[in-house]
Design brief:
Largest sheet: 5 strands, antiparallel
Radius of gyration: 13 Å
Oligomer: single chain
Number of strands: 5
Strand order of the largest sheet: 4-3-2-1-5
Low-confidence stretches: 1-9
Mean pLDDT: 83
Number of helices: 1
Distance between the termini: 15 Å
């Protein structure tokens, strides 16, 4: 297994790093839930890493620009969070098939 690549970033850069990295691999990141508790998520938007029967069906669905929608490996389902709530990107595993 490819080791995690640590990324040190400020909160303002964290959402950009998470969104960008999820396109090419699996990202471990932290965001604040609405109740104020932190959530550690492991997610991707790389379609080659998402089960075929769970790929996003609404390609034309409009998400607000400040929302990050991702496949969550822990719960095996789609999740989303506001990008301003992402506090840190802790690591990336780049998809070797890309």
């Amino acid at each position: 297994m490819t080791p995690l690549v640590n990324i040190v970033s400020h909160k303002s850069e964290a959402s950009y790093n998470a969104r960008t990295a999820m396109r090419v691999g699996i990202v471990r990141f932290v965001y604040r839930k609405l109740d104020g508790t932190p959530r550690v998520a492991i997610g991707t938007t790389d379609e080659t890493l998402i089960p075929a029967d769970r790929l996003a069906k609404g390609a034309n669905r409009r998400m607000p620009p400040n929302m990050v929608c991702y496949w969550d490996f822990n719960v095996q389902d789609w999740r989303s969070c506001k990008e301003e709530r992402i506090e840190a990107v802790e690591g990336i595993i780049v998809n070797p098939m890309r």
